[in-house]
Design goal:
CATH architecture of one domain in chain B: Orthogonal Bundle
Strand content of chain A: under 5%
Order of helices and strands of chain A: HHHH
Mean pLDDT of chain B: 79
Helix content of chain A: 25-40%
Largest sheet of chain A: none
Shape of chain A: elongated
Largest sheet of chain B: none
Shape of chain B: globular
Number of strands of chain A: 0
Number of helices of chain A: 4
Distance between the termini of chain B: 84 Å
Radius of gyration of chain A: 61 Å
CATH class of one domain in chain B: Mainly Alpha
Distance between the termini of chain A: 143 Å
Oligomer: heterodimer
Structural class of chain A: mainly alpha
Low-confidence stretches of chain B: 1-12
CATH topology of one domain in chain B: Rna Polymerase Sigma Factor, Chain: A
Low-confidence stretches of chain A: 1-10, 57-67, 173-193
Mean pLDDT of chain A: 66
Chain lengths: 193, 197
Amino acid sequence: MNSNPHKPTTSESAYSPADETLRLVASLPAPDGLEDRVNAVLSAGQNRDRVLGRDRVLGRDRVLGRSRVLAWPRAIRPESGWMRTAAAAAIVFVVAGGGWGVYMRVEQSQTPKVIVMPARMPAPGGFSGAGAMRTPLTLPGPAAPQPVKANEPAKTDAARPKTVKKPLSRPKGISSGQPSGTGESSTRPDAPR
Amino acid sequence: MSTSQAIVAGWMESPTSAVNDEARRCAEDEALAALVDQYAGTLYRVAFSVLRNQSDAEDAVQETFVRVLRHRDSLGEVRDHRVWLIRIVWNIVLDRKRRAKTRPETDDVSELARVLPCTGLSAEELAAAAQHHAHVLSCVDQLPGKERQVLVLSAFEELTSVEIASVLGITESSVRSRLFRARNLMAGLLEHQRSLR
């Protein structure tokens, strides 16, 4: 570790000739008359600029391939700042007005009041509905009265066939006067033999 | 010119504005001449440190002030004219150096022998000194571009590290780190050349 910070290290001592050369080159005096020559070049450039500027004002810059019909007054010259601002404002106004006109002409689409449910697509490999249609469940309405036929006699309790009550139990061997299941075919005359 | 044309011309170009314009132009010319007198020498040294040719450096200085002349309307917005001018001439000389790579290099030794101070030196000593400086400058040319630029600019005593950073468009810490690297590389190159002898 270098204890003395002012003592040059090995690399600094090796670098010192380079530093000396660079400082020597950087401190070289400028050649005599440099300022005069630069001023001469600048004055020539200024004169040329002035001639070109005067030609431009007088509309004589056809030499440069441009023609000028009207020399704008300084106040409304296109190069002036407020002229550019006004032009930019006019462009913005035209674009915004056009957009507003288009917006006002186009009718807004009516939003649908009924939400249409999309058709449910059967999942591949699943069960199909087999074309079944869903019928909505409706409430039972009021029963309509049945029309009564004029020729038909009104059904009374006497006209109704009486229901014969079967005896709950019948003793074996006692005939009840009705044919039994086994002897019915023999008693009927039109029964096929 | 007819009477109507004269009236229109008089309306278009008001005399007061023309007088003001002329006065403004005169003030700008004086300011530009003052800049030339004050900074032409500094700009020449910066240009010569890169180009190492007297006429090329002078051309670079003239081109710098021609550029300033073109943009003299924005002269009042510049805070530090010296750094601003050095930055312009720096860009010009780097551009010229880049283009000069396609051309054959000028003989640095003879050019240095011509421009270096020769007071109290014999012809032989002057030739040896020029040889030594040319050798050192060839080592500088072997450095990477970033380190070389910082090293060349640091040789100017009138430029601080902040101003070098402003010229190169980098931070001051970058200037310091690049300068450290450049000095180490330079020392290594000089040691290597010495060991080869």
